[in-house]
Write a structure and sequence with these properties.
By secondary structure, the protein is α/β, with parallel strands linked by helices. It has 11 helices and 6 strands. Strands 3-2-1-4-5-6 form a 6-stranded mixed sheet, sandwiched between helices. The radius of gyration is 51 Å and the shape is elongated. This is U three protein 23.
Length: 298
């Protein structure tokens, strides 16, 4: 089944469920012709119905349709179809052989089962699967009857009939009107607020807060020219003056030149340089030896 057609069938069955109360498992009335055609096209009849209706199905067959199969038992392969039809649920139509020596046509029998009182309603929510055009034509006049047939080994479901569509639209309009009436009666519907309503609300709020009635309302200031954003403005730079405080480096130099009493200069202490890399150990050793000699001579 193509995807587009499958979506249409699923949506159609949802509409039948919401408008006419269809639910799984769907009761499908079969006639003798669709059983024969399904066997001729090598189709799984029950599986095809489940795929078309998008749900579980309960296949049913009337007594008159079974009598039609028995009448054609001399044809090749019909005995197998009779055994297969016996597995379906038997729908008693009431057309007994004593009263009706010849079985009724599929049109009359199925119509009597679907709409026995001629009310134009599908009381028991049957789905009709038939190859007979006359059967489908009669079912279109009854409200809420899904119709299924086989065309060239493809199972097709007819769109909703005009009578069913009119009934669905009428019910939707009545529900809509009923909802409006019930909303007006209960006062749940919202009404538009006007300026007078807003003033009344403000006055009632002031009374609750204890504000006197003669109190004048504060007027809102008219919006003036907008200035720049103070956070986005650049800050003023501070003027740098002459620093009179001596730096730390000058203090150290003065202390090295003169002693604490200011009489004699103090000798600077030598800082020993340590090598940063292991590869320079030899070079450091050579420089360290003459420095020791210089200390001894001094």
């Amino acid at each position: 089944m193509r995807g587009k057609r499958a979506k249409q069938y699923k949506k159609l069955m949802q509409q039948y469920g919401m408008s006419f109360g269809f639910r799984e498992a769907y009761q499908v009335l079969l006639d003798a012709d669709i059983i024969k055609d399904a066997d001729r096209f090598k189709m799984d009849l029950v599986g095809g119905l489940e795929r078309t209706l998008h749900g579980q199905v309960k296949p049913m067959i009337t007594q008159c349709s079974m009598r039609h199969l028995y009448a054609a038992s001399s044809e090749p392969g019909v005995s197998y179809l009779i055994d297969k039809a016996k597995t379906y649920e038997r729908r008693r139509c009431g057309h007994l052989p004593e009263d009706y020596p010849e079985p009724l046509s599929a049109r009359d029998c199925i119509k009597a089962v679907v709409d026995g009182k001629n009310n134009g309603t599908n009381k028991h929510r049957y789905v009709v699967a038939s190859q007979d055009i006359e059967v489908r034509k009669a079912m279109r006049a009854i409200q809420g009857v899904p119709l299924v047939y086989i065309n060239r080994s493809v199972m097709i479901m007819e769109p909703m009939a005009e009578t069913s569509t009119e009934t669905r639209d009428r019910e939707e309009r009545s529900k809509f009107r009923q909802g409006i009436k019930s909303g007006r009666a209960s006062g749940s519907l919202k009404r538009k607020r006007t300026e007078g309503d807003e003033d009344d609300d403000e006055e009632s709020a002031k009374k609750d807060m204890g504000v006197p009635e003669g109190a004048a309302r504060k007027k809102k200031n008219a919006p003036g020219p907008k200035g720049p954003n103070p956070l986005a403005m650049k800050k003023k730079k501070k003027v740098e003056g002459g620093n009179t405080k001596p730096n730390a480096s000058t203090k150290v130099a003065d202390a090295n030149d003169t002693g604490a009493d200011g009489s004699e200069p103090v000798k600077r202490k030598r800082k020993r340089l340590h090598s940063k890399k292991k590869a320079e150990d030899g070079a450091d050793g050579e420089t360290a030896i003459p420095s020791e000699k210089m200390d001894e001579t001094a």
